[in-house]
Amino acid sequence: NAGVTQTPKFQVLKTGQSMTLQCAQDMNHNSMYWYRQDPGMGLRLIYYSASEGTTDKGEVPNGYNVSRLNKREFSLRLESAAPSQTSVYFCASSEGTSGGLYEQYFGPGTRLTVT
Amino acid sequence: GEDVEQSLFLSVREGDSSVINCTYTDSSSTYLYWYKQEPGAGLQLLTYIFSNMDMKQDQRLTVLLNKKDKHLSLRIADTQTGDSAIYFCAEKSGGSYIPTFGRGTSLIVHP
Questions:
Q1: How many CB pairs under 8 A join A and B?
Q2: CB B93 to CB A40 under 8 A?
């Protein structure tokens, strides 16, 4: 089991460029999440998905779009990158879609710099 | 919304005990977690406690929960340099599948 994988590991973009961050999990989990991590701000939830075809906004969705392509894959798209989107992006998954202990499993992160 | 607060930094000497504290506001929190993030990596679940428990011990780790004060702590005995990491407190109510994370406490262990 690879767990949660993310590509790419590192990316540098110029302001205004677009890109898609890819995430896949092989644990047959129902729920998937995208977070960003900034110094002193902890983890902030961007979008989440409880099942294929459904997505919901988290705390900081502006400037991002997501696609839950199938049960395994959840991608995050930046249509027009801005320096404020420089961050480390983490994808996570968990088994549950309702109450329960449901540990989150995290990918290794994508380190994005927008110049 | 609900909030989880942690201090940002803790520095300890190798061999000492570390205590990382967390407070939360959601009175319906059912599950409380500690996640560990090592440098350059994602978060991994370290331990958890149910809201009907006061204490949980797992080898060098002791979790204490004061539900009345909404206070959670993680004690690491005999702290080693390999324990240097960011520790995140998180809580989740029984009806939700999305946890609320604190900002993380950077634990620095020096010789």
A1: 58
A2: no
